[in-house]
Design a protein that fits this description.
GO terms for molecular function: metal ion binding; metalloendopeptidase activity. The protein is an alpha+beta fold. It has 19 helices and 17 strands. It is globular.
Length: 480
């Protein structure tokens, strides 16, 4: 369910996208808005990385940003490499541009990175976020629900508006879903910026193809075709845009890609979860710093975020997060329920709160049944007192009578030893040089994964099963 239903056909959409938008220079108001949002976004997306990798991303980002006409001064732009394990990139007014280390690792040359950053700058230059906000406000008046990041978490609208409320997170400025015509226009603006900066404009098409393949791989690994990765939730359907981007770039295009330089400069990036933020490994989540672990139910998958872990399956949804415990677990649970209630809605309260103990940890839980247009749903808050004023809790949502699916997860949380915590190692992106006799399979066998190693290697390197490796060629692998 999107914010805006676009009824124009593909030809009309491409014609609309090809119109050059009016570009507005960065204003004092833009700078003020961006400066206010910047620290909030850093906190939400794991903070900004520093060091040579971040400096390199900043250099490329500023080079492409000045092509937009928003400003001719590179100092007017702030480019941040985010310590986040999701494939995401975005920009906000005021010259603030962001890309996650995970999405950076998916790219295969500098031109692709410039293309992604240029695409995001294009959204700002064309004022797409402002347009979407106006559309959202108009649709809210009409009673039409907007699609936010919760759409990516929930996968469908089976749990209704209440499910959207439960699992929505992130700045509205970022989570407004762009329309197809806006995506095409941002692609074309990004390509224009690539040409101006001397990059190969075909890189926009190749990075969109990598994103489309990564989306498909993630859906395959999760056993579903209806789970949308974070970048795709706000930037719909990169697969459909590949050909349009290549056509706009022109088949005979040329320019630099700086492939080897790019690969050398991103070598060593943390790939996937940073242990400091907790690590998802299959159905198991371990936080070595906070010293606890739990397991998702069979058939569910987890996505680790900075503020919460999202657990999703066909029979329910959940989030795990924490907070300060200034009173009893009863009041903590009541407070979590209170936070779910819109100001114009009846207060959601559990029928009762029961006390228990889980693996030696004091715990309590409450259940509330909520009526939705799609039927009744059960909301459970299961909280744990970890001592020293710190609590953690699961917030789960299932069809009425179906909350028992989460019982094994509730009972799985446990403290871990220093030895267990010390055994959790980060995965790292490593750039290696192909040697004589190396094959896709032999290099994929070195990947730090027990499932789909070959598929992961091919998508990571923008290759297909028939790609021949050449001695001396640089490729990416993921190791511990």
């Amino acid at each position: 369910m999107g914010l805006l239903v676009v009824s124009a056909g593909p030809a009309r959409l491409e014609a609309q996208a090809s119109k050059a938008p009016q570009v507005y220079a960065i204003s004092a108001a833009d700078k003020s808005q961006g400066a206010k949002a910047h620290p909030e976004l850093l906190a939400e997306f794991g903070g900004g990385l520093t060091g040579p990798q971040a400096s390199y991303v900043e250099q490329v980002g500023k080079r492409i940003a000045v092509q937009s006409g928003l400003s001719n001064a590179t100092g007017d732009f702030t480019v941040t490499l985010l310590n986040s394990p999701v494939n995401n990139a975005f920009a906000i007014p005021g010259g603030y541009i962001y890309v996650t280390r995970q999405l950076t690792a998916l790219m295969n040359n500098e031109a692709e990175m410039a293309g992604v950053l240029g695409h995001e700058v294009g959204h700002v230059a064309a004022r797409h976020s402002a347009q979407r906000q106006k559309a959202a406000q108009r649709n809210q008046i009409l009673g039409v629900l907007g699609s936010v990041l919760a759409g990516a978490v929930l996968g469908d609208n089976a749990f209704g508006q209440f499910g959207q409320k439960l699992f929505s997170q992130g700045s509205q400025l970022l989570t407004l879903k762009f329309s197809r015509s806006q995506e095409l226009q941002a692609d074309q603006l990004g390509i224009t910026y690539l040409k101006r900066a001397g990059y190969d404009p075909r890189a926009m098409s190749s990075v969109l193809e990598s994103l489309a393949r990564q989306n498909a791989l993630e859906a395959q690994l999760r056993g579903s075709t209806n789970q949308t990765p974070e970048w795709a939730s706000t930037h719909p359907d990169p697969a459909s845009r590949v050909r349009s981007a290549l056509t706009y770039a022109g088949q005979g295009s040329s320019g630099t890609t700086n492939r080897d330089t790019f690969l050398t400069r991103i070598d060593g990036l943390v790939y996937g979860d940073d242990p400091k933020q907790g690590v998802v490994d299959g159905r198991k989540f371990t936080h070595p710093t906070l010293r606890f672990a739990f397991e998702a139910p069979d058939g569910f998958f987890m996505v680790n975020g900075t503020q919460a872990v999202t657990i999703s399956g066909s029979s329910g949804k959940a989030q795990f997060s924490g907070g300060k415990l200034s009173g009893s677990l009863d009041s903590y649970i009541t407070g979590v329920f209170a936070g779910l209630t819109e100001s114009n809605q009846a207060r959601i309260t559990p029928a009762s709160i029961e006390k228990t103990t889980v693996n030696g940890i004091p715990a309590a839980y409450g259940v509330a049944r909520v009526q939705q247009q799609s039927g009744a749903v059960d909301v459970v808050v299961f909280a744990y007192d970890f001592g020293n004023g710190q609590a953690y809790h699961f917030l789960t949502l299932a069809q009425a009578g179906g909350a028992e699916v989460f019982t094994p997860m509730f009972r799985s949380i446990r403290r871990i030893s220093a030895a267990d915590a010390g055994s959790v190692k980060p995965r790292l992106l490593r750039v290696v040089t192909v040697r004589q006799g190396d094959t896709v399979r032999s290099l994929a066998a070195k990947m730090a994964y027990t499932d789909a190693a070959v598929d992961r290697f091919l998508v990571l390197n923008g290759m297909d099963a028939n790609t021949a490796l050449t001695p001396g060629q640089k490729v990416k692998i993921v190791t511990y």
